[in-house]
Amino acid sequence: MMENYSGGKGVVMLIAFYNTKSLGIRYLETALEQNSFETDAVYYKGFNSQNPAVTTQTELKLLRERIAAKKPLLIGLSVMSSMYLETVDLVIETIKASFDIPVVCGGAYATMFPGRFLDGGVEFVIRSDGEEPLCRLAEAVYQKSGYNDIPSLCYRAEEGNVINDIGALQADIDRYGLPAIISRSACYIGNDTLTEGDPQRYTMSYEVIASRGCPFTCSYCCCVNLRRLLPKGTPPVRSRSVKSVIDELIIAKKELKRLVYVHFYDEIFPNVPGWIEEFAAEYKKHIHLPFAIWSHPQMVSADVLKKLVAVGLREVTMGIQSGSAHIRKDVFHRYEKQEDIIRAARLLKESGVRWISYDFMLQHPFESDGDLLETFELLKHFPTPFELQLHGLNFLPGTDIVPLAVENGILTEEELDKIMYAPMTEQFGAYWKRDNEAMSQLIYELIYCQQFGPLRKKAAALAADPLNHQNKIHALYNRGRILYKLRHFARKADMVLQSKRMK
User: Would the pLDDT of 3 be above 50?
Assistant: First the structure.
């Protein structure tokens, strides 16, 4: 599957946390193997937002055995989020206690906070795009040569931590090659077991990115903060060519025998002039699978939707986050207007997208009951059916929402540190919906019911006086939860049936 592969220089082990698909390490696999390194991919624990679990001693023992068997010259950890640092720290401690093997961390969180890992015993951190610097670092370790001239590399030195600026990035990201669809050597560690092979081999959905970066400045997201670290002149979004994307999907169709649909994980699906037209033609010609994308109210176009729906677009998820214009603008740094959002929702419906999801962050410290009611009112304008993804605001280290909370007297720095670095179970519990004070909870439940046409009229009537209709609202909400589960299964079945029809 790869060209120029020999693996003669030794093994680089790559560990992905809570992500069995992990595009990050799959791109690194390709880069390393093209430079004659063998790779071993360890997919460490699966993602479960409803029941997150820290690693166990059994799982750490299995990792030690894997490292002892593979004898890597370098171990790379993909640290994308602060939400699972408990597990990351335990893995680092385990490696350092048992082996004399250098460790390098990369990913979004490591890029923003390299000192945390260097102070914790890790030898190296790579910031931003890792393909080229990781290959150079692996070569330096293999040759036992110097590494201080590697762009984007941070490391420990006698005089202290060296935090280098991020070097120039590839403008043409096609040059990074295609990610490893199936890892040559891989295993999954989770549930106290080690399973040989790439867990992606049996997936029904394939994740692909057609671009890197995001043009927006949302305060709760790290994308804008990562962008500020990049060299001046780096475009906010770097898109792949249509040919590169299609070539990847052709291989995925061949290798993944159970593949049903494609999920584009771009922050915002590419909107480059001419790209959509070429993509639509090539996707229709070669892929024939339903696909899903993420979008933004300011990026929705009737013409683009029409072209994408015609070749398989089946599902769109759009972030809105709040129905309150004040919360969106002053807190979340999102500048779309109410009419922009309503227009986008109607275009999605009119375009024929089968499954439409809207993402909202509710019941957070910045929000009043009045703001919640504005979300309820906004949703009245959305044509059904649609799905609501409702969750809380998670404060992520390094994002603009953190100093904003301090400036507005919402939380102190000490309180924020406690929240941001709380145990994994607490963080996920805060991120996903949790019970709140009575009025807030009632409005939340009414908002939830807005996604179901048959419940809307009743929800509107109850919204006039929620506190005097608590039992009725709870009952309506419970009906909605049943409908949600049924729709979840219907969507999965629809994707399977649509895939068969398109084939």
Answer: no
Name residues whose C-beta falls within 8 Å of residue 403's C-beta, 6 or more positions apart in sequence: none
Q: Is 409 inside a domain boundary?
A: no
Q: Is pLDDT at 493 greater than 90 in this prediction?
A: yes
C-alpha 369, offset from chain centre: 29
Q: 133 with 223, same domain?
A: no
Residue 2 has what pLDDT?
A: 42
pLDDT digits (tens, 9 = 90+) for 304-331: 999 999 999 999 999 999 999 999 999 9
Q: Tokens for 183, please give them.
A: 């890892």
* Count of structural domains within the chain: 2
* Residue with tokens 């490591």, as numbered in its chain: 110
User: Could you tell me the sign of the dihedral formed by the alpha carbons of 201, 206, 212, 218, in that order?
Assistant: negative
Phi, psi of 15, rounded to the nearest 5 degrees: -115, 120
Strands in 210-321 per DSSP E: 211-213, 237-239, 261-264, 291-295, 313-321
Question: Which residue range forms the structural domain that includes residue 442?
Answer: 203-392+432-502
| Whether 61 contacts 95, CB under 8 Å | no
Q: How far apart are CA 396 and CA 375, in angstroms?
A: 24
- In angstroms, the CA 266 to CA 492 distance is 21
Let me know: does 282 contact 310? Beta carbons within 8 Å: no
End-to-end CA distance of the chain, in Å? 24
**What tokens does 28 get?**
């690194």
Question: Residue 101 contacts by C-beta under 8 Å, 6 or more apart in sequence?
Answer: 67, 72, 73, 74, 75, 95
Q: Rounded to an integer, what distance in angstroms lies between the CA atom of residue 36 and that of residue 34?
A: 6
Q: Which residues contact 229 (CB under 8 A, 6 or more apart)?
A: 111, 112, 127, 128, 166
pLDDT band at 1 (very low <50, low <70, confident <90, very high): very low
pLDDT of 256-280, one tens digit each? 999 999 999 999 999 888 999 999 9
DSSP 418-436: HHHTS-HHHHHHHHB----
CA-CA distance, 272 to 154, in Å (whole number)?
Answer: 34
For residue 445 the two structure tokens come to 């439940």
Which DSSP state fits 176?
G
Contact assessment for residue 466 and residue 442, using Cβ atoms and an 8 Å cutoff = yes
pLDDT band at 431 (very low <50, low <70, confident <90, very high): low
Cα separation, 296 vs 306, whole angstroms: 16
Mean pLDDT rounded to a whole number for the chain: 94
- Give the C-alpha distances (Å, rounded to integers) separating 134 from 1, 128, 137, 228: 21, 11, 5, 22
Q: What is the CATH number of the domain that holds 258?
A: 3.80.30.20
223 and 121 share a domain?
no
194: in domain: no
